[in-house]
Write a structure and sequence with these properties.
Layout (H helix, E strand, L loop, with lengths): L39 H20 L7 H14 L9 H29 L16 H15 L2 H12 L4 H8 L3 H31 L1
Length: 210
């Protein structure tokens, strides 16, 4: 038996019952109805692409505490437009929506941080774990740090091309920009990434010889 597919909880909708205005209008009691369940295609959509969506919003700067909500928003949008999405275009559609959701979540996070700063409750800077046992975890931390420092427009193209392996044509369609603009942003993003990697390596070397 296949494992149950996780479906965003906000997709499960119960029937709304309207109360009568007078006792005479009261209908006979009805048997309880089951909640409206997501379609089979939607469940398959979630199963195929939930990791992609979660990965994309995380790499586009959504804080870890907000990733689940962001993923739900992406799939809620997809569920509402499911009949209009061609099966071969599901991946591109979800990435486009994930990009917009991530942008909204980053702005919301920035507003929260400004609010905390205004009231004098700034969160402490992210503290690195004293010892990183796994080299893979270290590299992921470095990647996340570099992506966080990258311009949002450049980061979106870099993540979709280098990490999610979309073509420039697919990226241009997902982000609704000309293909030439996507190519230009990718070139600049690669330069920025290489420069930041070089800086990180230099800092590591200087720290090790200190």
């Amino acid at each position: 038996m296949n494992a149950p597919v996780w479906v965003p909880s906000c997709i499960i909708v119960s029937r709304v019952v309207t109360l009568p205005t007078s006792p005479e209008e009261a209908p006979l009691p009805e048997r309880p109805t089951e909640p409206v369940r997501p379609s089979r295609r939607f469940r398959k959509l979630v199963a195929r692409h939930i990791d992609l969506v979660a990965r994309t919003v995380r790499r586009l700067g959504v804080p870890p505490t907000d990733i689940e909500d962001a993923v739900q928003k992406v799939f809620l949008t997809a569920n509402g437009k499911l009949n209009a999405i061609h099966p071969e275009q599901e991946r591109g559609f979800l990435i486009a929506v994930a990009t917009r959701v991530a942008s909204h979540e980053r702005r919301a996070q920035a507003r929260r941080e400004r609010t905390r700063e205004a009231v004098g409750h700034l969160p402490s800077p992210g503290v690195q774990t004293p010892e990183r046992a796994a080299e893979q975890a270290q590299m992921r931390d470095l990647l996340d740090t570099i992506l966080d420092r990258m311009d949002a427009d450049l980061r979106a193209v870099f993540v979709l091309f280098e990490l999610e392996e979309l073509s420039l044509t697919e990226i241009a369609s997902a982000l609704e920009i000309p293909r030439g603009t996507a190519a230009s942003r990718l070139r600049r993003a690669r330069e920025d990434f290489q420069n930041q990697c070089a800086d990180a390596t230099a800092e590591g070397d200087s720290g090790g010889t200190a």
